[in-house]
Amino acid sequence: MPSALPDGDPAPADGSLPASALAELGDGPVSLYLHVPFCATRCGYCDFNTYTAAELGSAPGSSRQAFLDAARAEVALAARVLGERPIATVFVGGGTPTLLDAAELVGLLDAVRQHFPLPDDAEVTTECNPESVDAGYLDALVAGGFNRISFGMQSAAPQVLRVLERSHTPGRVADVVGWARASGFGSVSLDLIYGTPGESLADWRASLETALGNDPDHISAYALIIEDGTRLAAQIRRGQVPAPDDDDQADKYLLADELLGASGMAWYELSNWSRPGHECRHNLAYWRGAPWWGIGPGAHSHVGGVRWWNVKHPRRYSAALQEGQSPAAAREVLPAEDRRVERVLLESRLVEGLDLEVLTASERARVPELVARGLVVETDEPAGLRSSRSGPLSAAEAGQRLRLTLRGRLLADAVVRDLLD
What we know:
Elements: H1 19-25, E1 30-36, H2 53-56, H3 64-82, E2 87-94, H4 102-115, E3 123-128, H5 135-144, E4 148-154, H6 158-164, H7 172-183, E5 187-194, H8 201-213, E6 218-223, H9 231-237, H10 246-262, E7 266-269, E8 272-274, H11 281-287, E9 292-295, E10 300-303, E11 306-310, H12 314-322, E12 328-333, H13 336-347, E13 354-355, H14 361-365, H15 367-372, E14 376-379, H16 395-398, E15 401-404, H17 406-410, H18 412-419
Parallel strand pairs: 1-2, 1-9, 2-3, 3-4, 4-5, 5-6
Antiparallel strand pairs: 6-8, 7-8, 10-11, 11-12, 13-15, 14-15
Helix pairs in contact: 3-4, 3-12, 4-5, 5-7, 8-10
């Protein structure tokens, strides 16, 4: 089952933002996330806001066309609220975005172009299930303006794919990566999951080696998290499969960092490695606290310290926009201290590290102990990510920074807990 939305304050029906949020935004760019809520089947580990055809039924507002109409209406709403400003990145996620026809995905991007300037160098990404596309489909996406694609590989081990209830066969990934290259995608990424019940270290090594054998530009490797309400959580509770083991996942993270680093990829965020210049700029916008607007059922947004989230069900989402209203379920205006803490949580995940000026005096006093424990280093050298910016970091941007060591990356959550007041 999809996870529940958080509580919050009532959101304005017209989608308006406080003047302070718009003032902070200034004339700068924003990122757009478009959530496609459809899946052919629900994987046993997934609690994302997605729906199969059987779950949606045939009630008004549940169709693919109703979603497309509503998403285009929300793009128009975002333009009315934000005004004309460039789009830095577009990311289409889900769900399985490529259950839509290629023309429908391109049509969503055309709606963005209709309401916002979309520079030639904007990063435009879609997620993709390897079984849902062919070479012609990928050709159409590139012709329509997509330049980055992320394939959900997850594993090369058939028994792991069965536990995860993934539908593709391992060999399919080589086909789709080859087609994506031939189509002209500028960046090709593969998503992997480690720590699945029954996955051995040899299985994980084989998955990494298979992924690298396809010569991607970027790899995301995520530890499996067991979410309440999923089928996999129920199987673990009944003792049908073992729960993930923290030590096992740590060993697999270390192996990933070793093999990916040896291949020429560098980590730039805890779960992400890339070749130079192929970092995911959209996700970096999240981690750096940049503004984004989320389009679609259950999508979240953040602009100028205001966070809001849409109603989850596609029928309610479509109904709100048909009535000319914002689909937001609720919102919150973040106090300055909450924003500071969030900045620590997010920026500490990055190879560029956290600016020490963000910390309070008492927090800075804890840094030497963390250094002594081998969890962090202090540096004024902003490692990596230069290629994902318009230019090098200025001296003011670099400052004195706190960066996680490899051991610190394994214990990142604990490091932040020990650091914060």
